[in-house]
């Protein structure tokens, strides 16, 4: 949680605080969307992927593997950010309950909780996609290595 949000939280400006939390979640959603577009450029139908991977050279494989590693790193960074937002959300729910603000709590639970869950699900799904693609690239590397040994 950054200092601006922390100071809002300490001043008990709950509605402004909730708006800031929501804005942070929206920013993270946009960043994740960019990452997902990168991943979609990487992942094509399985048949196409197989054909593409069969034609990869050793340097292509290394480049694709590096891209996958970078995308995985980016996803992990986003996952950490989402986890921070989830903690922030849970802390806010407690604060709202303590201040008897049921309307804000209802809005927060409907909007934020589902967004966080969706973001985490998307990260998990895309991480699996990248891992699958990377395994195919690594398999291609092994095939090339084996072919050279013969």
Give structural notes.
The structure is a single chain. The chain has about 150 residues and is mostly helical. The protein has helices at about 5-10, 15-40, 45-55, 60-100, 100-150.
The largest β sheet comes out as: none
Counting DSSP E segments of at least 2 residues, the number of strands comes to: 0
Structural class based on helices, strands and sheet pairing: mainly alpha
Helix content: over 70%
Q: What are the secondary-structure elements, in order, as H or E?
A: HHHHH
Query: Which spans of ≥5 residues are poorly predicted at pLDDT below 50?
Result: none
| Beta-strand content estimate | under 5%
Q: Which overall shape is indicated by the principal axes computed on the Cα atoms?
A: rod-shaped
Quaternary structure type: single chain
SSE inventory with pairings:
Layout: H1 3-10, H2 14-42, H3 46-54, H4 58-98, H5 102-149
Helix pairs in contact: 2-4, 2-5, 3-5, 4-5
Summarize the structure.
With 150 residues, this protein is mainly alpha-helical.
Question: Which labels suit this protein?
Answer:
150 residues; mainly alpha; 5 helices; 0% strand; rod-shaped
């Amino acid at each position: 949680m950054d200092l601006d949000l922390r100071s809002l939280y300490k001043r008990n400006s709950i509605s402004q605080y909730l708006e800031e939390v929501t804005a942070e979640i929206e920013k993270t959603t946009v960043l994740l969307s960019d990452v997902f577009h990168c991943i979609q450029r990487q992942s094509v139908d399985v048949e196409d992927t197989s054909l593409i991977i069969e034609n990869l050279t050793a340097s292509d494989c290394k480049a694709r593997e590096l891209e996958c590693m970078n995308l995985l790193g980016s996803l992990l960074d986003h996952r950490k950010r989402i986890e921070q937002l989830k903690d922030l959300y849970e802390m806010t729910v407690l604060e709202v309950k303590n201040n008897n603000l049921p309307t804000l709590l209802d809005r927060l639970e409907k909007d934020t909780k589902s967004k966080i869950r969706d973001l985490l699900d998307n990260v998990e799904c895309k991480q699996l996609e990248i891992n699958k693609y990377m395994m195919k690239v690594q398999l291609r590397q092994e095939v090339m290595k084996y072919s050279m040994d013969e």
